[in-house]
Every structure is written in structure tokens, then in C-alpha cells.
Model the fold of this input.
Amino acid sequence: MSIATEYLGLLERLGPAAMPAVRGFHLPPRPLWGTKDGEFGALELDDGSIGLSYVLLGDTLTRLLQEGSGALVGRSVLDVARWYEAFDGPRQTIGFAAINAASQHLFRLAGYRPPDASDSIGGIDPRPGDSIGMVGLFPPLVRRIVAAGARLVVIELRQELAGEHDGYRVSLDPSELERCDKVVSTTTLLLNRTLEQVLGHCTNARVLSLIGPGGGCLPDPLFARGVTSLGGTEVTDTHAFLGAMRSGSAWGAYARKYAITRSEYPGFAALVGRLHRTSP
Done:
């Protein structure tokens, strides 16, 4: 079963009545398109929940601008979440944002607040002698891992980055992850259809972290596939966040980074149980 099918199955168990409608899909302003500050779009629900999704894969952003985001306003978030499985490109991206928004809605409704992230590198705690794999090049993280004395291989899709660098190596071959005891990856794997392939090479990793603003989804399907930690972003002030996004301002003050670990997460069933206990 694909991870998209699993996510939809979880959301469908909540039922349409528990799912708020979509209020809109927001993109950063034109001056930020293609830059680091313009990497994510935001799907907003009627209850203020926000789901983020990376928009710079291939020609996704261009097509979003050409095709628009469709007639989203007022639609059930579950209907839009189905786009994650049914389409590629812009609609898949919006569908994944809907998965994240619905997950944030459930967390909020169940009174579950994922713990604050203890660091920016997925809790992998690099040490001398560690063999660490990184999926997607994160330059700030690279510097911290190399400075800690760990061996580092970065798996990338961009051929121009391949080769030896100062203290680390970039490879196009994900099988090199099989020699790593710790792996940290971008959550973009959930959008570019490489998740299953990459995780299949991480069976020797005792720490396997996915991190990024797009990690706002339920962690259950990922934990079942060997992931040990999921780092995401919770928007804490929807109005201020969207205002900052639209104006091209920094929005970090209106959101927080969190990390859900497999060992401490209560699980989907427990979250749903909280809903039943609190319902009238």
C-alpha cells in the first residue's frame, strides 16, 4: 500500500464531519519565487489550521501560477487531500498541503502538542566516528556534522553537486545510505515519489529523521516504515503568518519547529480516542 493511500485511509477514519473546509491556498509573493524564502505554499482551513507544501519541485510553481489552485474554497479538506494520491505536479502539491493541514487540525482537536525540536538537525546528535547520510543538501547542517567529526555522505538528485567536498561527499547513489547508522532527510521525499526507494536503503540506520516545514503530517505511516523522528512546523498565529507570507516577510516568529519521536508519540488511535472522550 502506498503512503498516500495510508494517509487518506487515516483521514477517512475521522469522517467528513470532523474535517473543516478549505479557506484558501496561499503562495509567497513574486519577488520570492525560486528563492529559499519562497519555497512553500500554505493551505488554510476554516479552523485556522495550516498545512505547508514545497512548491519548487520541477515546474510545479510555474504550473500553479498558470493553472491556478482550482476551486478550493469551501471544499472538504479530505476531498482536496485525495489529490495527493491522484495527481502529480501542482495538484499533488496542494493535496499534500491538505494532508498536513488535516493532520494539524487533528493535533489541535485532540489537544496534542508535538514537543519543540531540540535542534535543527533532526536529533541525530553527530559524533566522531558516526557514519551519517543526508538526503538533500542542507549546507548549515553539513557544517555542524562535519565539525562534529562524523563521516558524511549527501545523497542528491542534482548531478552538478556530485563529488568530494570539504569534509563530506555528495553522491547520486542512494544505496550508499546502507552504510550509514544515522540518516537525516528532507521531507520533500514525500512529494518527489522517492520515499520508498530511499527508506529501503536505510535499514541499518538506528536514527532516521525526516525534517522540514512540509513535515506537518501524521507520523504513523512513516514510523511504520522505520523513521524514528519527524520534524515539522506548526503555525501558531495564522493571521500573522499569512500576512507575513503574502508580504514576503519572515514568518518564523509565527510558527514553531517541533519533533515527534517514534518512542514518545501516542499514535493515531490514541489521538482519535481523545476526540471521543472530549466530544459531547
Q: What stands out?
A: The radius of gyration is 18 Å.
